[in-house]
Amino acid sequence: MRSLWTGSISFGLVNIPIKLYSGVQSSSLDLDMLDKKDHSNIQFKRVNEKTGKEVSWDNIVKGYKINNQYVILGDEDFKKASPEQTKTIDINEFVELEEIDPIYYDSSYYIEPEKNGGKAYVLLRDSLNKSKKAALGTFVLRNKENLCLISPSEKILVLHKIRFAEEVRSTEDIKVTESKVSAAEIQMATKLIDQLTGKFDISKYKDTYTATLLKFINAKAKGKKFAAPKMHVVHSKSKDLMSELKASLSHVKRKAS
Which of 214, 218, 226, 248 is the most buried (most CB within 10 A)? Predict the structure, then answer.
């Protein structure tokens, strides 16, 4: 793997030299867009909406519209607004992981210590493990200040880039019709949850769509036919919630036996 950021973690007066590596990769196939007629690649051009003519990169500027007028921004304007360029992940405080709503998580990066930072790295990792907390901090990546959480995962530390509060939409516009649910229904639903509860094992779940699509592509390349999977639509026979819960419990028991 190639590191995408080098710097250090500032932990009190402790400085840990580290490298960051992307912790995720796409499982989707890299498909090209082609012309249906001759399978030529499709190119995207920068076109002036008024003249219809292509515009070169040298003649493209960025602007922000205020009152139907564009304020044009140059390189110097962006530099003035950019955060101070540092190579440090500044830990501001420590928080309980369970306090962080999953909606704030963005992307994840593996943290590797430099040779001279190994002991301090292990110290932070083991201390976070023991306290069951995560380090909350900020750092600059690609000229943008980012908020991040650092937490242990197996033998390494992982940096989770998280969203700022203003990046998460309010839930005010989401309408939920409140309905009265009986204690018996809650008890039955809890029982169903208990029966379906298992130890989290992400390896059990695969990207079946990509795997199936690749099989189809290989079969088509060899001139073979590939049968599409059938869609199974299940309609509930009852609108009674308690009946559906009881039927669900019976189904889980049969499946387990």
Answer: 248
Closest CA to 209 of 21, 29, 25, 20: 29
Nearest to 107 by CA among 149, 143, 153, 136: 149
Domain 5-25+82-167 sits in CATH at 2.40.290.10
- 105-150 tens-digit pLDDT: 999 999 999 999 999 999 999 999 999 999 999 998 887 889 999 9
CB proximity list for 206: less than 8 A, separation 6 or greater: none
Could you tell me the residue ranges of all domains in the chain?
5-25+82-167
Rounded distance between C-alpha atoms, residue 140 and residue 145, angstroms: 4
Spatial contact of 107 and 161, defined as CB atoms under 8 Å apart: yes
